[in-house]
Structure to design on (750 residues):
């Protein structure tokens, strides 16, 4: 049996919303980072869903690009987080507002 | 005729040589080289003069092309020399008198710290002056015109350590600028009207030009002439120009440069002939200047100031002659005036030198016993300028007054009064300086008091010798007396150039090709009238001399004859400084206020708005990641919302 595409999209929207809200309200850098991943993968899910619904391979191939970029982003992002943890014992995102204008 | 190229080239060569090696040549070699340069230029002038004499009347205008200066579109100006009787007359007396004054300066400037530089300027001046008179078009003449102006500035403020000298130089320069503006406008107008600025090219097209344009050209050129030749209303710079070394006063501010305006008028005579109204203006400006300056000269105490106002007055006479159409008389008086005024200035320099930089005539007296050559030659100059029968000034002034008589009796009457005043103030000067008591003795010791500061700052002692005995006046060295003697001889016999008897009017015949009848109609004054006029003028002059001598050889203080108004030169300087100084100051203050409030206000206002706006906007940059994320999310929602609404989904 096949599940209708609308449900997939609904799940993706829910995941994206969870990620976005989490990003806004949490202060732990690692958690925020995971929220970003959540949003990215929600978008991936919509891509795949649309690819199947519309019978177009373009959506699926785009997912690969997103995955690659996300992987690169993880590398850079984690590197930054690790270096921040080296200098500070606690590290919430709000502690890092030294770039205030 | 090719010697013509050498006339301006030699002083230029002297200038370059002295500029490069002057300092090494030093005192007095630099002076001798400069004298040699201008002296050989005089020889070149003489050679050219005789070559031109050899031509017949109709071929006495030769253009010598040097190089094409400008050739732009329809505008063409050559660096070319115009050799004709008028320019050769000018060349001869400029280089002749110039040589004598160079020679005089060798002695006068001896010991000056900037000795060589003085002669650099002097040679540059000679070059510029020769370009002025030799120029074949208005542009080359203007080059010389500006050159002499610049040299005049440099030489007036030669002793620039003295503030008064620096200020006087500036004043001369700025006042001349006003006149130069007129010259430039006239050049533009001439090009617009004729399509050329070459003298002969312009004169050929006079018939086709609009009368208004010709009037404008003539008036603008006259404005230029007023500036250069120190006529009303632009004369105030010349008395101040006496701050320069005395040879400079003699060369530039008496004999040559200031006559450039008269020369320009004579050169443009064909244009003036088309505009009789302008000629009338010129005559009146000339005669009024002559009269005003003569009255001022009657009340001056400074030996050089008297001569300066006298120069202005004599230049007024020349303009009177131009305005009456008596161009030959103007040129004649220009030449004789160069002789006797250069003589008087150099004599005054000799006196100042002999008295250790004393310029106040009230502190002189009886000098004829101490300075025989200076006083003898000075007295000749005095007789010549006063119009003593037979001497140079007598003939030339007579010519001018005869021309004025034919033009307008009122002009003539003022001219005669001025001639009387001339005789009077010159007599006063001679009586104060060379006769009377030895008043310098009274002032020899208390030299210190109010005069001291000025004294320290005045002309650096030209002769280093006898620095110690501040006692008796002494005669000057031979380099200074020889020019005096030569000029004295010229002042006596200068009249022979143009005697009003039949064939003896050499200058008149010589200049005839430049001023033919259609430009300068023969002035018809009956012989009897002429003699009567001459006798009347001479009588006035002799009476004035007699009265002047009786008054001033006995007493040096006659307050009633030296009204304060005349001492202050009719308050014209004060009027100008009120108009342009105070008035200009007010305008400047108002402009400054506008600048502060409006211009600065706008600039500062923009700056303030930007700064305050930035101050508010920087609060957006909170540094909290969640704020940025919220902004991104909010922004995305807005953009999407907008897109959805627009697409009507």
């Amino acid at each position: 049996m096949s599940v209708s595409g609308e449900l997939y999209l609904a799940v993706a929207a829910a995941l994206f919303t969870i990620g976005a809200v989490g990003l806004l309200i949490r202060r732990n850098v690692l958690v925020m980072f995971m929220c970003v991943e959540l949003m990215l993968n929600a978008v991936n899910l919509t891509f795949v869903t649309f690819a199947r619904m519309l019978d177009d391979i373009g959506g699926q191939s785009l997912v690969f690009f997103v995955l690659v970029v996300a992987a690169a982003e993880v590398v850079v992002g984690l590197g930054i987080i690790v270096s921040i943890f080296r200098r500070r014992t606690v590290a919430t995102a709000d502690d890092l507002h030294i770039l205030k204008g | 005729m090719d010697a013509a190229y050498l006339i301006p080239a030699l002083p230029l060569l002297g200038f370059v040589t002295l500029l490069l090696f002057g300092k090494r040549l030093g005192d007095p070699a630099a002076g001798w080289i400069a004298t040699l340069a201008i002296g050989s230029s005089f020889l070149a002038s003489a050679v050219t003069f005789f070559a031109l004499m050899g031509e017949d009347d109709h071929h006495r205008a030769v253009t010598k092309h040097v190089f094409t200066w400008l050739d732009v579109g329809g505008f063409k100006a050559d660096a070319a020399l115009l050799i004709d009787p008028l320019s050769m007359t000018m060349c001869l007396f400029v280089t002749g008198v110039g040589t004598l004054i160079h020679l005089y300066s060798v002695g006068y400037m001896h010991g000056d710290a900037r000795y060589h530089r003085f002669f650099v300027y002097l040679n540059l001046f000679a070059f510029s002056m020769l370009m002025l008179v030799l120029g074949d078009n208005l542009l080359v003449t203007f080059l010389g015109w500006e050159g002499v102006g610049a040299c005049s500035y440099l030489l007036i403020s030669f002793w620039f350590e003295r503030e008064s000298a620096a200020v006087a130089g500036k004043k001369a320069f700025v006042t001349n600028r006003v006149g130069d503006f007129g010259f430039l406008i006239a050049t533009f107008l001439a090009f617009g009207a004729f399509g050329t600025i070459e003298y002969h090219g312009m004169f050929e097209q006079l018939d086709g030009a609009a009368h208004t344009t010709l009037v404008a050209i003539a008036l603008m050129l006259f404005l230029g002439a007023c500036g250069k030749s120190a006529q009303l209303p632009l004369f105030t710079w010349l008395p101040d120009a006496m701050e320069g070394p005395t040879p400079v006063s003699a060369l530039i501010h008496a004999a040559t440069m200031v006559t450039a305006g008269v020369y320009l008028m004579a050169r443009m005579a064909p244009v003036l002939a088309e505009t009789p109204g302008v000629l009338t203006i010129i005559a009146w400006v000339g005669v009024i200047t002559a009269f005003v300056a003569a009255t001022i000269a009657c009340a001056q105490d400074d030996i050089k100031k008297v001569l300066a106002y006298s120069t202005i007055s004599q230049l007024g006479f020349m303009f009177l002659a131009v305005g009456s159409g008596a161009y030959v008389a103007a040129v004649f008086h220009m030449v004789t005036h160069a002789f006797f005024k250069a003589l008087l200035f150099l004599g005054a320099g000799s006196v100042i030198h002999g008295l250790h930089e004393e310029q106040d005539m009230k502190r002189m007296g009886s000098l004829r016993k101490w300075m025989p050559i200076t006083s003898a030659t000075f007295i000749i100059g005095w007789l010549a300028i006063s119009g003593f029968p037979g001497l140079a000034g007598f003939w030339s002034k007579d010519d001018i007054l005869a021309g004025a008589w034919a033009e307008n009796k009122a002009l003539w009457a003022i001219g005669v009064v001025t001639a009387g005043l001339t005789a009077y103030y010159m007599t006063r000067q001679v009586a104060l300086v060379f006769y009377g008591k030895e008043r310098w003795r009274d002032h020899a010791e208390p030299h210190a008091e109010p005069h001291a500061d000025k004294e320290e700052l005045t002309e650096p002692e030209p002769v280093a010798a006898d620095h110690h005995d501040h006692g008796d006046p002494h005669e000057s060295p031979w380099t200074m007396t020889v020019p005096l003697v030569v000029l004295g001889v010229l002042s006596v016999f200068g009249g022979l150039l143009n005697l009003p008897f039949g064939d003896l009017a050499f200058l008149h015949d010589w200049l005839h090709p430049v001023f033919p009848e259609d430009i300068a109609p023969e002035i018809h004054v009956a012989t009897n009238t002429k003699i009567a006029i001459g006798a009347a003028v001479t009588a006035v002059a002799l009476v004035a001399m007699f009265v002047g001598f009786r008054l001033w050889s006995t007493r040096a203080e006659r307050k009633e004859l030296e009204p304060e108004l005349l001492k202050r030169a009719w308050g014209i300087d004060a009027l100008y400084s009120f108009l342009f100084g105070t008035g200009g100051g007010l305008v400047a203050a108002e402009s400054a206020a506008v600048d502060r409030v409006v211009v600065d206000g706008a600039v500062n206002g923009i700056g303030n708005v930007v700064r305050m706006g930035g101050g508010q906007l920087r609060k957006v940059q909170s540094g909290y990641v969640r704020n940025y994320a919220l902004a991104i999310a909010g922004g995305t929602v807005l953009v999407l919302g907008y897109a959805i609404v627009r697409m009507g989904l």
Summary: Helices of chain A lie at 5-25, 29-54, 57-87.
